[in-house]
Amino acid sequence: MHILLLGSGGREHAFAHKLIQSKHCTQLYIAPGNPGTASLGKNISVSINDFEALGQFVLQNNVELVVVGPEAPLVNGIYDFFLNNDALKHIPVFGPSQIGAQLEGSKAFSKAFMLRNNIPTAAYAEFTTSTLDEGLTYIKNHTLPIVLKADGLAAGKGVVICSNITEAQVEFKEMLGGKFGNAGNKVVIEEFMDGIEFSVFVLTDGVDYKILPTAKDYKRIGEGDTGLNTGGMGAVSPPPFVTNEIMQVVEQTIIKPTIQGLQKENITYKGIVYIGLMYLKTGELKVVEYNCRMGDPETEVVFPRIESDLVDLILSVFNHQLSTVELKISNKAATTIILASGGYPENYEHGKLISDIEEVTDALVFHCGTKQNEQGALLTSGGRVLAVTALHENWKTALSISNQNAAKIQFEGKYYRRDIGFDL
Ligand code: AMP
Ligand code: GLY
Hints:
Layout: E1 2-7, H1 10-19, E2 27-32, H2 35-38, E3 42-43, H3 51-60, E4 63-68, H4 71-75, H5 78-83, E5 93-96, H6 102-105, H7 107-116, E6 124-128, H8 132-140, E7 146-150, E8 159-162, H9 165-176, E9 186-191, E10 195-204, E11 209-211, E12 216-217, E13 220-222, E14 226-229, E15 234-237, H10 244-264, E16 269-280, E17 285-291, H11 299-302, H12 310-318, E18 333-341, E19 364-367, E20 370-372, E21 378-380, E22 384-392, H13 395-408, E23 414-415
Parallel strand pairs: 1-2, 1-4, 2-3, 4-5
Antiparallel strand pairs: 5-16, 6-9, 7-8, 7-9, 10-11, 10-16, 12-15, 13-14, 15-18, 16-17, 18-22, 18-23, 19-22, 20-21
């Protein structure tokens, strides 16, 4: 089977790594891919949001499955584009329909979905420019801290936690004023939840589901969870505090109502629901957010723990076999540490020579932001450059293997957190 994977980050390298191990996969194409995926399949230079061009490529190259890594093509409706095209409608696109992707594409949509389906989440209200004054009053009467969220996709920057009223009112006006472009046309204001976060990844066909390994990622740039938010600086799977008892509560109160809600509301969803959770200090479990895809860097720890054939799992979603397909998960824990460019998530330089990857032992290296020059040398090309993943029965040992290998790889300005897992 020929498979086309969309995306170019560490998540997609981890997807590619698993897809090519499948007995079904005879040829993997990655659009646009990166130097890591180039060693596993054929990178093609087609834009992930040019659905016409992707459709042509699929037909010309006998692609029989499309796997979507990032959220943008899903929110833009790639699933529906294929379904509504006579020549393409028989080709499965792994990911939700456009309306399903609104679970991530619109905070207001996802909050209303949770409210309708009795799924525990922070109390909230939504405002637009026409209700700006009501919003300012709402903030004035709210407890602190207070959380403001731009409704739409804002490259992970659309959530601001404010610790005083004036700051929150200024931020609110800036969001509605276009600070995050159209993403801020609507603003969700919600109560702050105090606790520890973790994520579950649910493979679903919209009716049945399988729960993939859990993970915790570390979003802040600085050690001790300080400084600016990033895409994620490291991850651990499973987070040791997530007991079976906790997962039973999550399944009953959050996962089941989510899948039943999709079904009740006739939302076509054949993909991953990523549920970001807060385990509150009060012991409650609430949803922080939904995403319509796998996480990055969570995929770099979740997939290496899945022993089953990933293509079998994906195909079961399209063949009504999800309830019977086997999901085998390794007993080993996985950890990943991101090597980032100095300055990230603010300004950073590109094009630094990466060396000594070949010194890495007992770990997987996934490419997040790398490129090759004409001479074949590997250079940095993004804020997050590489993810170093290790597996071990003991998560602390896995972390020290990730750390030792993170130290070996060299490039100018290399930065990484040495404290991933510090709070576990
Ligand atoms: P989101 O894009 O909704 O996941 O928000 C990004 C990050 O902001 C989350 O991973 C949390 O760390 C934090 N966050 C979002 N909403 C809340 C909340 N209501 N209470 C506390 N932290 C939050
Ligand atoms: N690591 C967070 C995300 O993928 O959204």
